[in-house]
Amino acid sequence: MLNSSEKAYCKALEALERKQFREAMRYLDAAAPFFLTNQEFGLLHQTTRLLCLVKTELAALEVETTRTK
Amino acid sequence: MSRIETLKRLEQTLESFLERAVFVKAERIRVLGGINRLDDIARKAVDGGDPTDSIGQWFAEHNRLRDTGAFTPAEQHRISDLLGEIRRELRVNEQSSPAINKIASEIERWRQTPTSTGVKLVLKRGPEVAEPTGEEPTIAKFHSTLDKISALFADKSATKKHLLSVLDDSLKSATLQKSPDALILSGLLVYYLKLNGYKVDPFVKRLKEAEQIQKQDGVRHAE
Q1: Among residues B60, B71, B55, which one has the least CA distance to residue B114?
Q2: ipTM > 0.85, yes or no
Q3: In Å, what is the CA distance from B111 to each residue of B65, B66, B82, B102, B115?
Q4: Which of A23-37, B32-46, B71-85, B145-159 has the lowest mean pLDDT?
Q5: pTM for this predicted structure
């Protein structure tokens, strides 16, 4: 049987394929302890994390811009 | 540039990177997704659920992947283990339904048959004959073509960051400019990427289309 981290990584990749970045982030976080030394996993994980942060920041800035108008 | 614009650019860059990263892993994702689903089916079977329908559907969806050698030996081993778990829960006996018997035999077939090692390439040619005098020998011709496609590759790759972008550009030249050298370069890149585990089906389709366009163009010029 697959362990829960491996299952989470599979689901993260499928979520990335659907461009569901926040869902992918949740699965990548769940899988992370098992893939600590996997560079490819690390790259996907950190890129997705950065993208989610950028999206959050953009959403906040856009709300701020709308308010000041 | 405003902060929003900068962040939007960064967002686009990151999305584009992830899109490409996932694109080159598309076949691996299908394989891993398939193993994950089989694992779900095995868990349900172990918990007392009836796996007959879901395993039947899984076979239908994954036979092609297996036939094309998409599974690595380690993945095939994991699949065999999972199928073994499911097989144990089937409890096949004389009263078993035909569906269960069929699933059990399919599981055995999957577990016993070695996986394909990929598509076999067979090269055929006619008997060797002397070069007709007055014509450029094939070796010299090929050498000259090789020089031209090397130069073409150097041009196209100079501004690209990934071989897939070079292939995309080369296929465009083969289709739009009808360049025979670009067609050969595209074929070479497709084969190289395939050997390195990339999913090349969409490029093979475009390569065939480019070849067809050049053939039709050749026929028009001959007429």
Answers
A1: B71
A2: yes
A3: 15, 12, 10, 14, 9
A4: B145-159
A5: 0.56
Other beta carbons within 10 angstroms of residue B105's beta carbon come to 11
User: What distance in Å separates the CA atoms of residue B71 and residue B79, rounded to the nearest whole number?
Assistant: 9
- Asked if residues B183 and B207 have their Cβ atoms less than 8 Å apart, the reply is yes
CB pairs under 8 A between A and B: 65
HSE value, Cβ hemisphere, 13 Å, CA-based, for B34: 25
Closest by CA position to B76, among listed B57, B62, B89, B87: B62
- With cut-offs at 50, 70 and 90, classify the pLDDT of residue A12: very high
Structure tokens at B147: 């020089």
Say if residue B31 is exposed, middle or buried (CB neighbours under 10 Å; 0-12, 13-18, 19+). buried
What is the chain A residue with the closest CA to B33?
A: A10
Q: Quick one: tokens of A39?
A: 């560079």
| A51·B25 Cβ contact <8 A | no
Average pLDDT over every residue of B5-22: 94
Q: What is the mean pLDDT of chain B?
A: 82
State the Cα–Cα distance between residues B30 and B52, nearest whole angstrom.
22
CB A44 within 8 A of CB A9: no
Residue A12: C-alpha distances to residues A41, A55, B25, B43, B183 (Å): 10, 18, 13, 20, 37
Answer whether B8 touches A (CB < 8 Å): yes
For A59, which residue in chain B has the nearest alpha carbon? B4
